[in-house]
Amino acid sequence: MAAILSQMDADHYHSYIQAFPSRPELMDFLMETFILFKDLIGKTVYPCDWMVMNMVQNREFLRAINQFATTLTEMFLSSSSFELQLWNNYFHLAVAFLTQDSLQLENFSQAKRAAILAKYGDMRAKIGAAIRDMWYNLGHHKIEFIPGMVGPILEMTLVPELELRKSTIPIFFDMMLCEYQLTASFSRFEDEILRKLDSEVEGGRGDEQYKQLFESILLSCCRAHPELSRPGESFVALVTGLLERLLDYRAVMNDENKTYSMSCTVNLLNFYKEINRQAMYIRYLYKLKDLHISYENYTEGAYTLLLHARLLKWSDEANTAPMQGLHSPSLHTQRQLKEALYNQIVNYFDQGKMWEEAIHICKELAEQYESEIFDYEMLSEILQREAKFYEKILKVLRPSPDYFAVGYYGQGFPTFLRNKVFIYRGKEYERREDFEMRLLSPFPNAEKLQTTSPPGPDITESPGQYIQCFTVQPVEEPRIRLRDRSIPEQITNFYKANHVQKFSYSRPFKKGPKDPDNEFANMWIERTTFVTAYPLPGILRWFAVTSTTTTTISPLENAIETMMKTNEKILSEINRHQNDPSLPINPLSMLLNGIVDPAVMGGFAKYETAFFQEPYLEEHPEDQGNIERLKDLIAWQIPLLSEGIRIHGQKVTEDLRPFHERMEQCFVQLRAKVESQYGVREMISFEDRRSGRPRSVTWGPDWERLSHARDRRVQRGRHHPHPHSPEPLVLLCPVHFPPTCPTPMPSVSLSVFYTTPHLCVHSAVRHGGPVQWEDTEQRQPRAAPGSPGTAVT
C-alpha cells in the first residue's frame, strides 16, 4: 500500500475521488480508509527499529490524510452535507498518527533524531497544524464535538514538542468559547478535561513546560475576551492546580519508596473533594487505602475507608456508579455498602490496635441492628466483638508512638515538601535512628541539619536538599468527660498520644551569669508548639504544620514542670506495679534511686540552692507564689516515694536487698528533711470495691491544681499554734469518693474534702479537730460525707 500511495500525486487523488458515482459511496470509502489507516498505525506493521520503513509509511499516510482532509472540507462540511461520524473518524485518525511512538523524536538518540529531521522533517508539526485548521473550519459544527474531542485534543497537546503545543493549545479556548456562547457555561468541557487530564498525566504525559504553556496561553486568550475573563481565569487556575498535583503524584509513584506518594494522593483526593468530583475523589481514596495496607498502616487505612463510608447513608437507596467504587455489584444499596465498609474498618482498627475507634464503629452498627433493621443475630455478634475490644484495651500492651518533627528545606525538594515542616507518627517501637534512616532513603543526596532551629534563607533558597529531624512531644487535649474521675492508666494513656494536633519541643539555653555550681539557676527553656493541619493519627502518618508558636519558660517554671513530671512518673509506676505484680522491678529501682540518692542525680537540692535562698527572693518577689508551689511539689513527692519504696521492698530479690536497704536509708534522711521544711503529706490508696479492680490511685493527680500555692497550704512542720493541736494528716484517695472510700480509721475523723481532676484531697486529724487550711480563694468546702442534710454526689 505504501508503494502505491507513493506513486500517487494530487491529480491522482483528485481523479480517484471524482470517480465515485455518489456521495454515499465516497463516504463509505473514506470511512473505511480512515479506519484502515488507524488500524495500521496502531498495530505497527514494521518492527520499531525499522526506522526507514516506518518513516516511509508515515510520510505516505500523512500525504494521503491531507488529501482526504481537502475532500472532507469541500464535500462534507456544509450544513446539508455535514457528516459527523466521518469528521470524527478523521480527527481520531489524525491524533493517532501524531501520537504514534515512531514519531516521538525525543525518545531517539541524537544521531537518529537528526537523521529523521534531515530527511522527513517533524511530521507531528505538519499534522498538528492540519488538525488545528480542520477544527477551525468546522464553524458552528464545533459544539457537536464537545466533549467527545476534548480527550484526543488533550492527548495531542501533551506531546512534548514546543511549537506543536503553542499551535494547538488555543483549541481549548475555542472549545470553551463555543460551549459558553451556546449554554452560558463550559461545564461539559471542564468536566471532560479534568477527567482526561488525570488519566493522561498518570500515564506519563505532561510536564512542567506544558503546565506553564497551558496557563500562559489560555490566560491571554481569556483576558482578551470580556465574557470569559473571570470564569476563564478560574478554570485555568483549577487545571494548573490539578496539573501540579498530578505531576507531583507521578514523580513519586515511580519511586521504590511509596511513602511520599501517600502525601500526593491525599493532595489529589482533597483537590477533587473541593471541586466536588466525587468519582475521582473515591478513586484516590482507594489508591491511598491500598498504599497504607501495603505498608501495614492499618489505622490510616481504616481512617481512609471511613471517608468513603461517611458519604453513604443508612438507607435502601441504590448505589450510584461513583459511590460503588470497586466493590461488588451485589452490594446494591447504600446500607449494604456502608455495613460492608464498616466491618472492614473495624478489622483495620483492630489490626492497628485502635480499639477505641473500633468501638465507636461497633456502636453505630449495633444501633442499626437493634433499632433499624432488627437483626438480633448480627447485634449479638457485634456486641461480642465490642466486648473483646474493651478487654483488649485493659489487657493488651500498647506502646505509645513517638512523634517527630521533620523539615524539608531547599529548592531541591518537590513542591509538596519544599520548605515545609511535618509532624510524623513513628511506627511501634521505632527508634529515632531507624526513623531517620527510613526518612533519608528516598533522598540520598540530602544533608541532615544538626540544629533544631529554623534555617535561614541560605538554606531555604539553596538548590540543595536539607532535612531536619527531632523528637516532639504530643500535647494532650483536655477532655471534659475524663475529668474528676478515677480512670485506669491503660485508658488515659491512649488519649495522651492519639487524637492530638499540638506538639511541643523544648530547647534548653543559658541566660544570664553562669553558675558553675548550679546549672538550674539559669537554665531557661525555649518551647516551640507545632499545630498540624489535622489530628494524628489520620489518613496519613504525618501532617503539615500550619502554625508555630514559641514561648520562654523561666528556670523556676522549668523546675516546677520537672517536679510535676517526676511525681506523675512515680505515681504511674506505682499504679503499674499495683495492677500487674509480674512487672520487672528494674525501671522502678532506677527511678526511685535516681531521686532519693543525692549521689546519683542531686535530687531537688539544686532547686533549693537556686530558688529558696534569700538573695533570689529579694531579686524576684513576683516568684513567691511559684516558689511555694515548688515546695509543695517537693513535699508531695515524699508519700509517693514512700509507696514506691514499699512496693520495691516487697518485690526486691535477695541479691538486690543491700541496694534496697541503702535506698531506704537515703529516703529516711530525705523524708525527715522535707517534712521538717515543707510539711507532711501522706497518701493512702484504697481497694476498689468492684470485683476485679486492683487497689490503685489511678491516673495521677493534677499537680497543676493540687500543688498550687494560691489554693491552699497545709500548716508547715510539726509545730502547731496551740500545744494541744493535733498532728496534720492529708489523705489521698481516688476521685470516685465516697463509694470506694473506706470508713474513717480509728482515731481519725474526715472533716473537709475537695476534688482535683483526679483525686479527692481530704484533710484529716488524729484525735479530732480539722487540719488548719489557709484558703486565699475562699474555697467553699463540702460537708463531710454523712453530715446531716448533705447529699453525697
Automatic annotation (TrEMBL):
One record GO biological process: myoblast fusion
UniProt signal peptide: none
PROSITE patterns, alphabetized: DOCKER
Residues of the DOCKER domain: 272-683
Cellular component terms (Gene Ontology): cytoplasm; plasma membrane
Gene Ontology MF term list: guanyl-nucleotide exchange factor activity; small GTPase binding
Region feature (Disordered): 772-793
UniProt keyword annotations, A-Z: Guanine-nucleotide releasing factor
Family indicated by similarity: Belongs to the DOCK family.
PANTHER family reported for this sequence: DEDICATOR OF CYTOKINESIS, DEDICATOR OF CYTOKINESIS PROTEIN 2
Name used for this protein in its record: DOCKER domain-containing protein
